[in-house]
Amino acid sequence: MRPFLSRAPWRFLARPFTTALPGAWLYAPRLTAAGFSLRTTIAALLALAIAFGMELGEPQWAPMTVWIVAQGTRGESISKAHWRIVGTLAGIASAIVLIAAFPQSPWLFFPALSLWVGLCTALGTLVHNFRSYAFVLTAYTCAIVALSATAIADQVFTLAMARGSYILLGVICEMVVGMVCLPNVAAQAREAVTTQLRQIITQAAMAVRDILAGRPPPEGDLHGIFSRALLLNDRIEFSAIEVGREKHVVAFARATLGLVTRMTSRGLGMRSRLLAIPDHSALAGAVIDDTIALLGLLPDALGDARALARIRTDMAHLTRRCADGIAWTTRPLTDNAAIEAATGDRIVLQGMELLLHEISHLLACFADDPREALTPGRFSLPRPDNWHAAWHNGLRSGVAVLTAALIWETTAWAQGALFVTFVCVVCARFASFSNTVLASAAFFYGAVWAAMAAVVPVFVVMPLTSAYPVLCFSIAIPMFIGGLATRNPSTAAMAASFSNFFPYLLGLDNHSRIDELQWFNTTFALLSGLGFGVLVFRYVLPFNLRRFCALFRARTLGNLHRIGRTPARMEEDVWIGGIIQGMENLIAHMGHRGDRLTDAWLHGAFSVMTIGRNLLYLRDFRGDPRIPDNARDDLSALFDALSHAATGPAALARQVRATFERLHGMERTSGDTGTRIALSAALGGLIIVATELGRGNVFFSPGAACPDPRARA
């Protein structure tokens, strides 16, 4: 039976008003959002009560930790809690070392602190998910503890232990309340993973179907498939925590996501094959039409095991038809036109065979078929390391900390340590974000809202009474609202900052309350530090779209040349992942996808991705014993030319066409069926590369304009 609330008449009647009007997240929240906000508020108040009972010096850090650790799923919360503990321990240890190494030596201490913050920020850029958070937490935990101990260096160990106590208390409270409120997490995680996989498989299958039908989707839709696959691949590690011992579910899910990108990429290759060979026989046309029909049935079959088994059987039958058709095209022919038509059919059918193999592997992984051999990394989808961004982020953070320290030293500001601390927090925390200015600005405005919300409990409630229940009532309402806003995508970034800083700005203590002057000084130092961080991101090594486009082009073309180099091999997963990551950064700074230049860059990225993947496919033919020695020599010459950075797109296109003509001649004169099939498979890869090189591509035009973030479609 469904829950009463899901079928209550009032919810049905209110739906047109609650989903369309702005602010619906507040007055008509989703039950999941309300549940998250309620349990996190309870956990925060519980942590605060325990901190008061333990006579901790700064009890507000315990509820702050609860809100920082709390995430939408238990896997995310557990992962963040784990890495928060790791980062905290590393941070307090490094703070003790810094204070011990440079006591009462500010201009040895500050450069050392800035170097450490810069190093942690750079390392955080090179890893992902909450491992990155652990590095940045190490940086600003070190800053918090070390700067608090500058005037009382002999108390640094006590301060470090206190900091660790707050963090552990907050983590434990959040974990306990989460376990009580969210039972049966493993089953929900399996269901969520399955639903997400169905959605992305459906999206990719419809895109490939439209490509085969001659109606290729917009470049922005294709980017959405790859970007979503990369995002889900990152989030799979949280599902792995939730499902516990059933690790095979996660392994198959990772493989499925990797195969989604390969299937979509293979569909883009088929687009080029069909453009190069528009006329094909009824046999090839029937295979394409039947594949289109099966892809159309796939979304409904994903939720039905029997229907999915029938689809897989039909896919296997189509694959056999492709193999039979390929063999049929090698029959002896005398007419030149018939020979050319048969070769074209064979190239199309071989492309369809490759595509059907990708789809079959994909469906086998989705169905958890034990016959699908899963070797580590076979279908991985990694994010390549971005050393350029790591260097920039580390340098920017180090300069920001050193500049903030100089301001403190010059002005002798009483709250200078707090100012430098929050500069460290914002510069380390958001350095690895795609749009640092937008993220840090939202963080600043969230703190402004927290300051305004803290006025009532600080200036009205706390002077009147010290009763804990009254305090809870006055702060629970803002906390609950902040939790609701955290689960609303349009307000999530600002709300996260609000929830973090609201407990901090209460200035709680066991034996005293914060006075007005102290509150204003603390709030001003906090907002000044966060605002200074926003200015740093805007003016110190800021993101420049023109420079990014040039770097994206240079890195992509450099990786393309690496495909031809034997010692430094480029792998398929790294090739695809690097281009997807570049497209993500482009979209993050555009804010939309509709203008002509953005579409041109996305089109160029997909075109280069297709070229690279087919060159990787051709690379293996250099050692294929089925093709003649002179064909292998021609392919080796092609890759040797590709390996040189001086080989431009025009020269590469000429080399590809020349190699195609020579292999085509060998295929026509060969009397061995296996040799002809292998040569035509290589011809299929060459024809895709030649087709894509012949199309306009901004990656091959150094003077091509970059998208303008201010433009609108």
UniProtKB/TrEMBL annotation:
Cellular compartments per GO CC: plasma membrane
Membrane-crossing segments per the record: 34-54, 83-102, 108-127, 134-153, 165-187, 412-431, 437-460, 467-485, 519-541
One Gene Ontology molecular-function label: transmembrane transporter activity
Keywords: Membrane, Transmembrane, Transmembrane helix
Recorded coiled-coil stretches: none
Entry keyword annotation includes S-adenosyl-L-methionine: no
InterPro entries, sorted: PHBA_efflux_AaeB/fusaric-R (IPR006726)
Pfam families per the UniProt record, alphabetical: FUSC (PF04632)
Protein name, entry field: Fusaric acid resistance protein
Source species: Gluconacetobacter entanii
